Amino acid sequence: MKLDIFFAQNPIFRWQIFSSFLTSNGSTNLPSQRTLLAYHHKAGNIVMIRRGLYACVPPGESPNQISIDPYLIAAYLHNDSLLAYHTALSLHGYAYSLRSEYCYLTHHFALPFYFRDIVYKPVAYPNSLLRRKQTSFAIQTLYRNGLPIKLTSLERTMVDLLDRPDLSGGWEEIWRSLQTVQYFNLDILIDYALLLDNATTIAKVGFFLEQHKERLMVTSLHLTRLLARIPKQPHYLTPKLKIGSLVHKWNLIVPQHILLNQWDEL
Length: 266
Hints:
Elements: H1 2-9, E1 12-14, H2 15-24, H3 30-42, E2 46-50, E3 53-56, H4 70-76, E4 82-83, H5 85-92, E5 101-105, E6 113-115, E7 118-123, H6 127-132, E8 139-144, E9 147-152, H7 154-163, H8 171-178, H9 186-196, H10 199-211, H11 213-216, H12 220-227, E10 235-236, E11 245-247, E12 252-254, H13 256-259
Parallel strand pairs: 5-7, 10-12
Antiparallel strand pairs: 1-3, 2-3, 4-5, 6-7, 8-9, 11-12
Helix pairs in contact: 5-7, 7-9, 7-10
């Protein structure tokens, strides 16, 4: 019965959690624990997502047909998974569209993992955060199906989207998504942008904030902090395309469709 409670409370679990639960309830023999796990897998009570990570099968449902929350999978693929980029944006409720790629930050070296037509993509922390020992800056925890998920805050997510559009669905997705956000803690957002220590990203953040100055209540003091760290020479917002008009204030070359929000005409 205690194991039934464990399965009910842990729709997804890692082997270490299962083993710790059994140990705390008096079953300390490791081979016996593995045998018990294998029994429940064979009986169809759990699904192996990959070695070391399992999902519980609700009573009366088929292991091959149960729906497994992809956010929980991404959050538990590693013991330090931190959901980020478009995945975090979606969890915050601001993604313009859904994606079949789920990104998470981790200190572990790992390759992308595919499960049920979804790719789970591990991403290394930016070197600037590692050097400053600030990988935990502006993160938060929310719960899904009773389990905690760590993700980047909305402010950190916003900056990360502009820093890595390749992990964020592209510029239209980024702009359309961020334009729906009504409030950012601008001090935290700017602190994080400066922590990343990337002049081009800082210019992108400043450009976006100035475009939405009234709605987001951006002041000249906010912009001044960013202006002090922009590139010395013009940089492209989209280096692969190398097109656009120079926004002199930010030393940023921005494509016309982004300047004018002409997505529907693309």
